[in-house]
Design goal:
- The chain is of the alpha+beta class.
- The protein has a single domain, classed as Roll (Nuclear Transport Factor 2, Chain: A), CATH 3.10.450.
- The chain contains three helices and six strands, in the order H-H-E-E-H-E-E-E-E.
- Strand 5 and strand 6 form a beta hairpin.
- Helix 1 packs antiparallel against helix 2.
- It is globular, with a radius of gyration of 14 Å.
């Protein structure tokens, strides 16, 4: 049985990336960073578009100093598909388009989310850059 049927993986993906875009693309308040950090599982890891594996501490340390590093950044999420759901785990795949001015970069993302009470926390992410 899924931990909380109200957990919505599409909303979790969209909310996280709205906060990420606000943090990287504006002079957002610290609460935006704290919200982003709070949903990263303690054992979070990710494979970046360059193939590097980083953990939660490294991700958050890099992001902490990156407020407004890309002014005007927008992140569009599309094609969200729930690939699997078992116990308290959900696996999703989605497209992520980063836009600043007239340029953009796109990536295909697969993520494992863990339901903890009413929220989903990010356990692992694998990003693959694709041409737009």
């Amino acid at each position: 049985m899924f931990a909380d049927v109200s957990c919505d993986p599409v909303a979790a993906v969209e909310t996280l990336h709205a906060d990420l875009a606000a943090w990287l693309g504006s002079n957002a308040g610290m609460e935006v960073f704290e919200r982003f950090a709070a949903v990263q599982h303690e054992e979070f890891s990710m494979v970046t578009t360059s193939g590097e594996i980083i953990g939660r501490a490294e991700l958050l340390a890099g992001l902490r100093g990156a407020r407004n590093i890309q002014p005007g950044l927008k992140i569009d999420i599309s094609d969200v598909h729930e690939l699997a759901r078992e116990g308290n785990l959900v696996v999703v795949r989605f497209m992520e388009l980063h836009r600043v001015g007239g340029t953009g970069s796109c990536r295909q993302v697969t993520a494992v989310l863990i339901a903890e009470g009413p929220e989903l926390r990010w356990r692992t992410v694998h990003e693959t850059e694709i041409s737009t």
